[in-house]
Amino acid sequence: MAWNPWRALREMDRVVLIRERLPGRGLLTRRRDQHGIVLDDRLGQVERNAVLAHELVHLERGGGAFRPGQPATWDAVVARDEAAVDDEVARRLVPPDELAPWVAARVEMGDAVMAWEIAEEWTVPERVARRASTA
Description:
Structural class: alpha+beta
Strand content: 5-15%
Largest sheet: 3 strands, mixed
Mean pLDDT: 91
Number of helices: 6
Order of helices and strands: HEEEHHHHH
């Protein structure tokens, strides 16, 4: 069964959800002993779910690698961290043990499986579905 980031959020102490206009989709903040997950208030439900999952995985991993004012030499580290988080989000929202038999059944019938179909089946953005299908 796919992981529910909203349930995970409800079970976390000292994490607040904030919705406001952002230049990006979401971010993780910290003030003293409390974390905040900020989601862009223009996101639709499917995207909001994926962005919350992304920020929660960052939180579990100890925060994101990006730091304001960081040297350009850290960009590769940040990119690797983001890719690892995206991979984990795809595994949680589209579990491989559910995806594999679903894909196999369609292939057996002679159907090609497109990312949009995976996205619809698991109610995730296509970018998450593509990542899940290549993991």
